[in-house]
């Protein structure tokens, strides 16, 4: 059994991770942590997240001595804000832990990316270079050897899973940048309420237009510029990305279908729905699946990609990476 620690366990993705680690036959939940001065310190996670009550009633411990926690852990899941993950991941790594970070702290190698999009200067270039991007269906070989896995963001997961098969098969005319319109539920912003993400204040609106940090994350990992327009919707969980792209000269709907079906033929968690089909949230909410639909008319393809932001967009993708890293059966604790 691998001793597994979750930092940020009281948050939305942390609670999902807690449930999956509890269900995993090869992982032992050895500690749940929150910040040193958290208002939730020492509360039982089952009291905070009712769905866990009676399953996991461990206390949320204040994280004081990172080194000491690291010494007693094999696997560390960081469900913390970007800068927190940035600050503490190297200590866990120095003690030999395998780290799976749900934040954006180690996702993109580029000089100005963290100052431009995250508002802090990255201090750990060496780890940034070694970190493996955890897009599970596409990076298996590297994830299997990684010490540090940077689990992709939720919008980047939905967007890349739809576009990557077509780009890799050379079916997209990249002179015209694919346009990604994506709507996320409010849980995408985490559990802390503010005027912009308080449920009563949310209607349906675009945000971060031309400035959102997921645009460069998507472009970097796809190797293709994109226009990305995130929207906040008045529902709790899920992301629907609707993507318009120009096909290369002469590409047919049959080729698009073949590329998507071939890419995911042995990948249970990504479900190509077929030409003329549209992905919908209801089918993926509370699951680790990504559903993809597509339609072609003339030289354009419209793809729809739906995930649960907290699961395939975060926690269950992290669990996929753990399963790959340690050679466990791929769907363990997910389906
Ligand atoms: N929500 C989503 O859909 C997705 C989130 N992510 C990323 O995953 C990470 C977690 O997100 P989410 O679960 O939504 O966030 P939440 O805001 O819901 O939870 C954050 C957690 O971190 C804890 N925390 C804060 N500061 C510290 C600290 N210094 N040390 C230890 N724990 C700390 C918080 O508890 P307390 O403040 O009480 O200490 C809380 O448990 C973020 O980086 C986010 O960007 C990625 C993909 C999707
Ligand atoms: C609705 C909402 O606010 N969503 C978040 C994305 C959350 C996420 O997946 O992203 P990171 O891990 O990269 O933070 C946002 O737009 O900032």
3D structure, described in words:
The chain starts with a strand and ends in a 9-residue tail after the last helix. It has eleven helices and 14 strands. The protein has helices at about 10-25, 45-50, 65-70, 80-95, 115, 125-130, 140-145, 155-170, 215-220, 255-265, 310-325; strands at about 1-5, 25-35, 60, 75-80, 100, 130-135, 150, 180-185, 205, 225-235, 240-245, 270-275, 290-295, 300-305. Helix 8 (about 155-170) packs parallel to helix 9 (about 215-220). The model has no long low-confidence stretch (mean pLDDT about 95). With about 325 residues, it is α/β, with parallel strands linked by helices. The chain has a seven-stranded parallel β-sheet with strand order 3-2-1-4-5-7-6, with helices on both faces. Strands 9-10-8-11-14-13-12 form a seven-stranded mixed β-sheet. Helix 2 (about 45-50) links the parallel strand 2 and strand 3. It has two domains: about 1-150 and about 315-325, Rossmann fold (3-Layer(aba) Sandwich), CATH 3.40.50.720; about 155-310, Dihydrodipicolinate Reductase, domain 2 (2-Layer Sandwich). NADPH dihydro-nicotinamide-adenine-dinucleotide phosphate (NDP) binds near residues 79, 188, 190 and 309. N-acetyl-L-glutamyl 5-phosphate binds next to strand 10.
């Amino acid at each position: 059994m691998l001793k597994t620690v979750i930092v940020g366990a009281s948050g939305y993705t942390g609670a999902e991770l807690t449930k999956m680690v509890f269900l995993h036959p090869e992982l032992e939940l050895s500690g749940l942590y929150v910040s040193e001065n958290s208002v939730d310190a020492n509360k039982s996670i089952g009291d905070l997240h009712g769905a866990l009550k009676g399953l996991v009633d461990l206390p949320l411990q204040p994280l004081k001595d990172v080194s000491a926690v690291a010494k007693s852990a094999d696997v560390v899941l960081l469900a913390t804000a970007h800068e927190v993950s940035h600050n503490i991941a190297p200590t866990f790594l120095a003690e030999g832990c395998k780290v799976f970070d749900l934040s954006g702290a180690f996702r993109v190698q580029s000089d100005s990316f963290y100052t431009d999009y995250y508002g802090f200067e990255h201090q750990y270039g060496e780890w940034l270079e070694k970190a493996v991007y955890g897009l599970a269906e596409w990076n298996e070989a590297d994830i299997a050897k990684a010490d540090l896995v940077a689990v992709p963001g939720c919008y980047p997961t939905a967007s890349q899973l739809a576009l990557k098969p077509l780009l890799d098969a050379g079916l997209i005319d990249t002179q015209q940048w694919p346009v990604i319109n994506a709507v996320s539920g409010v849980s995408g912003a985490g559990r802390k309420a503010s005027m912009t993400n308080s449920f009563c204040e949310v209607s349906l609106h675009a945000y971060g237009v031309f400035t959102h940090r997921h645009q460069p994350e998507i472009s970097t990992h796809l190797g293709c510029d994109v226009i990305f327009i995130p929207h906040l919707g008045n529902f709790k969980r899920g992301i629907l990305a609707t993507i318009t792209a120009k096909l290369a000269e002469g590409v047919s709907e049959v080729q698009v279908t073949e590329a998507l079906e071939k890419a995911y033929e042995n990948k249970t968690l990504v479900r190509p729905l077929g030409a003329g089909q549209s992905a919908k949230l209801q089918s993926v909410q509370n699951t680790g699946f990504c559903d993809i639909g597509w339609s072609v008319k003339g030289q354009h393809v419209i793809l729809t990609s739906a995930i649960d932001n907290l699961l395939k967009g975060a926690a269950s993708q992290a669990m996929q990476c753990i399963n790959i890293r340690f050679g466990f059966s791929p769907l363990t604790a997910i389906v």
